[in-house]
Amino acid sequence: MKKKFAFLFASLFLLSACSAGPTGGSTSGSGSASGGNKQEGDTIKIGVNLELSGAVAAYGTAEKEGIDLAVEEINESGGILGKQIEIVSKDNKSDNNESATVAANLTTNDKVVAMIGPATSGATKAALPNVTKAQVPLVTPSGTDDAITVSSDKVQGFAFRSCFQDSFQGTILAKYAADNLDAKKAIILGDNSSDYANGLSAAFKDSYNGEIVLEENFTEGDKDFQAVLTKIKNADFDVLFIPGYYTEAGLIIKQARELGIDQPIIGADGFGDEKMVQTAGVENVSDVYYTGHFSTKAPANDKVEPFVEAFKAKYSKEPSAFNALAYDAVYMIKQAIEDQDSADSTAIAEGLSALKNFQGVTGEITMDKNHNPEKSAVVLGLTEGKETSADTVNP
């Protein structure tokens, strides 16, 4: 999710893998890659570049919780290759330029061998040139923009994710609208300032078998949607698709329901924060559906229950998808290090590229040739703000 998640993005040319990188380069096998940062001393330094303050701090804060739980578990169990994980965490303040600076500091000054985050697509893309230059792998838990891992038809050698990408979400939502909601006519109300929303809209339109009767836009930070919602209310449609984040989505849902728009509303993983329901009001959040990466109602495997119990014991609350995705990101890096028998950054990238049948709490993950995890999705249904359905959808 992206700012996966909705800011004005600087135009950045994403560097492709360097000659010693894990794709299209000259690495020679497990633990033998040259370049990048080397593991030194008694710890394995992993950087965290997250939105811990600012507009989408809810995502970054949730992911930091998942990271901290995973690291605590791993270190208490003896670490990785006998070494403890050392987390170096920095706040990118929900700002793309700050994300790039954080990535440079973590890879150049702190010499981390891997980086988790950012949470949002825009901030992740802003960080990529610096991690690529340093040959340090980045795993974003929720950066879903397709261009994170593939840009200009080139695989980004040091970019990985634990989540599925936008094109997959858009396709799943289009099929869900048609098949599960029997929606023959759809309206799209999307955030035109967000790469995340634009990618979702494009994928939805490419896959939807029904008619798109209207396509309207808003901009991140908007508060009053009465005019566009009045136009939508007067249209003939079966489902309203809102590709955007919880901040605006909550307001749109609230104002739509209060205006008398009672058709189903669908969205992507940007809906997946309790603040969306708080903003909309529980009485307005029924017949609302969104793609999720994790649900306790549709457990992916037998790792889910222990994760939920451990999370509740540490934080006294149920885990969210963002908690789970970040938790998986840590264990993916652990698996890559163990597979390569090395915690050097280029070896970790090799291990992530070759990850197969990894059992995460968000599902079984095999990394495809484009550095995207092949995994299932869950479409969650909300009634009065509570999750009341969870339909697993396999790729």
TrEMBL record:
Taxonomic superkingdom: Bacteria
Start and end residues of each Leucine-binding protein domain: 43-379
Record's keyword terms, sorted: Amino-acid transport, Signal, Transport
One of the protein's GO biological processes: amino acid transport
Listed InterPro entries: BCAA_transport (IPR051010), Leu-bd (IPR028081), Leu_Ile_Val-bd (IPR000709), Peripla_BP_I (IPR028082)
Region forming the signal peptide: 1-20
The keyword Transport belongs to this UniProt entry's keyword annotation: yes
CDD domains recorded: PBP1_ABC_LivK_ligand_binding-like
Family statement drawn from the similarity comment of this UniProt entry: Belongs to the leucine-binding protein family.
Name this polypeptide is given: Leucine-, isoleucine-, valine-, threonine-, and alanine-binding protein
Origin species: Enterococcus gallinarum
Gene this protein is translated from: braC
